Amino acid sequence: MPSTTNWNYPTTVWFGDNRIADISLATKHLGIKNPLIVTDEALVKLPIMADLTKALEDKNIPFTIFSDVQPNPTGENVQNGVEVYKNNKNDGVIAFGGGSALDAGKTIAFMSGQTRSVWDFEDVGDNWSRADESGIAKTIAIPTTAGTGSEVGRATVITDSKNHAKKIIFHPKMLPSIVILDPVLTYNLPKHITAWTGIDALVHALEAYCAPGFHPMADGIAIEAIRLIKENLAIAFKEPHNADARSYMLVAAMMGATAFQKGLGSVHSLAHQLGGLFNTPHGLANSIILPYALKQNQPAIEQKMVKLCEYLNIDNPSTQSFIEFILALREELEIPHTLKEAKIADERADEIGKLAYHDPSTPSNAMKIDADDLKNLFLASYSGDFDIVG
Asked: Which of 66, 67, 143, 349 meets the CB 3.0–4.6 Å disulfide criterion with 44?
């Protein structure tokens, strides 16, 4: 893999080891003279944050740091970030971190010039058209995990704390203007974060591939992302400083997020509810739910799974063979097999099924499902009993 390269799809991407040093060039390119760095409380204390700020300080670029971002960012986090942005007269955002920091940073940049509530821009109908586009600040996105791919997304997931619900906020101009993909930033991730975020990227690509509809570009990007993850996630987990594995995982995460403009599905429908109700890490929830969702969707995806297995050189191509591959990968990555093992209770199964049915990811699921189907998917994921959905 090349050590340094640039491309322009789906936005401007600067890829390579230690490209974080180019942050001053990125701000100059976009005319940002006083950026707000949006990150989280854990990352702000790490050496990679010092690398980012030093690169700005060396070029005498003033900046402000906002790190009050929860693992599942809330509307309050966004509101507080906008206040900091305005009080410090910032003129652009550097979103630095995992999916939570990227989502928060993109939303703060979006909301910095709006007068409506953030919830007025939930991804329903044409709500996005309500925005004052002239008030959307430019964003530079620098991911430090290989998972959500939010760096190339036009939407964010923000938690409504009052209703304990995750909501998707969308606008085409949320897409960051420049993305810096620096594999070195991911070298020292905790192993479980590498695992959870890697499966999150896999789910993005897989649900996009399985979503109904004709979108051959998304399908092509999705299956190549899945191949890259199959060949590199376990290596990145076991060999954290493996440059090629870390590089390919960053690219695969970006590809998965690019592909899922086609749609997602029931894995995300449920995972969003678990994040809102129990603050369950998104990647962990996706990792556990995935094989049970594949089993439930088997009647609609069998032919696609055969083709995918053939592409991936998985023996006996079928949905069941792919499920077995996922189960083996989860074991290798030390991921729990059930939501019960992840300390999720099952008393709210009915409520979760109903909430998940109304999630924006549900309409693009591989096959039509209702609230009872999603309740059963939750119960299967809780207990590990495939027969509940099979």
From this structure: 67
